[in-house]
């Protein structure tokens, strides 16, 4: 039998005090996939993710996470998911290694705490007390706690906020490694380069609805959007928007009999399509 998707949601509805914030929301995340939820502040990402985690109730809709309704799920289901939330709690009296060992004890088949410390780049800080970590190191400890139970599905809510560029790159490599090992990963982020680098598919949520879903290269019609071809002329720079950039470049090459001065060909970036879709739906 084919395994159920890691996450399937249809017709999800959620209001706070009578104000709908998630409405007619659908989502499918396949096993082994890295899926990035993108959307502006207040779009409903955290609400959706916390419903999937079983931390918030929903008003309507079908929700299955690893085949189970999170609202009715028990501790065996909980041990199969990992969560890295935006806010983590402090563990003032324990060292980093003690904290990990402590949480490992909650799971039926945890990963080795020292291997996890190594994986998140905290091996050297294992003996440090948690309050003595830097902000970025605290985030990495949160990731370590999210994966200590060796989850099938990992939720990451804005995981690299506050990371320096090198720490982000290391974190991305870790996520790719976890994914290569078969873990399904659902992340929310405001960093479009992060979504583009990590995600197999991106879902764009605006005002509580899923507006588009697809691979980073084609989400929002990015692959069919017009391309900007620009070049220099004695009268100044010229630009042409075209759906057939190759034909345009060939035509220019013929016109200039070879090299086209200052030629540039720019496809729409993920940021271009993101801002366009948000503009259309807000
Ligand atoms: N517990 C709550 N009570 C009332 N309103 C809430 C509650 N939680 C969230 N909201 C509102 O619901 C909307 C969606 O919030 P949510 O946190 O899901 O958005 P988000 O996409 O995660 O935003 P951000 O990118 O800023 O983290 C916002 O307007 C927010 O103010």
From TrEMBL:
Location of the protein in the cell: Cell membrane
Main subcellular localisation: membrane
Range of residues in the leader sequence: none
ABC transporter domain: residues covered: 7-232
One Gene Ontology term from the biological process aspect of the record: response to antibiotic
Membrane topology: Peripheral membrane protein
Listed GO CC annotations: plasma membrane
UniProt KW keywords: Antibiotic resistance, ATP-binding, Nucleotide-binding, Transport
Taxonomic superkingdom: Bacteria
PROSITE patterns per the UniProt record, alphabetical: ABC_TRANSPORTER_1, ABC_TRANSPORTER_2
GO molecular function terms listed in the Swiss-Prot or TrEMBL record: ATP binding; ATP hydrolysis activity
PANTHER family associated with the record: ABC TRANSPORTER ATP-BINDING PROTEIN, ABC TRANSPORTER ATP-BINDING PROTEIN NATA
Protein family membership: Belongs to the ABC transporter superfamily.
Annotated protein name in UniProt: ATP-binding cassette domain-containing protein
Source species: Streptomyces calidiresistens
């Amino acid at each position: 039998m084919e395994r159920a998707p890691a996450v399937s949601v249809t017709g999800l509805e959620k209001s706070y005090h009578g104000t709908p914030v998630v409405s007619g929301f659908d989502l499918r995340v396949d096993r082994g996939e890295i899926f990035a939820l993108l959307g502006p502040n207040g779009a409903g990402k955290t609400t959706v993710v916390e419903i999937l985690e079983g931390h918030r109730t929903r008003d309507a809709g079908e929700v299955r996470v690893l085949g189970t309704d999170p609202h009715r799920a028990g501790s065996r289901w909980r041990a199969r998911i990992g969560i890295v939330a935006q806010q983590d709690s402090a563990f003032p009296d324990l060292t980093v290694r003690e904290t990990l060992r402590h949480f490992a004890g909650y799971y039926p088949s945890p990963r080795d705490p020292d291997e996890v410390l190594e994986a998140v780049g905290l091996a050297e800080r294992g003996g440090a007390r948690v309050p003595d970590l830097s902000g970025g190191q605290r985030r990495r400890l949160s990731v370590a706690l999210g994966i200590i139970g060796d989850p099938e599905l990992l939720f990451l809510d804005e995981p690299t906020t506050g990371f320096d560029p090198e720490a982000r790159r290391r974190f991305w490599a870790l996520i790719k490694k976890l994914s290569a090992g078969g873990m399904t990963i659902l992340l929310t982020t405001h960093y479009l380069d992060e979504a583009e680098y990590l995600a197999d598919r991106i879902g764009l949520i605006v005002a509580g609805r899923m507006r588009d879903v697809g691979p980073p290269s084609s989400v929002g019609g990015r692959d069919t959007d017009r391309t900007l071809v620009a070049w220099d002329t004695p009268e100044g720079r010229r630009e042409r928007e075209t759906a057939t950039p190759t034909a345009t470049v060939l035509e220019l090459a013929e016109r200039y009999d070879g090299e086209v001065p200052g030629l540039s060909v720019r496809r729409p970036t993920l940021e271009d399509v993101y801002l366009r879709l948000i503009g259309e739906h807000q």
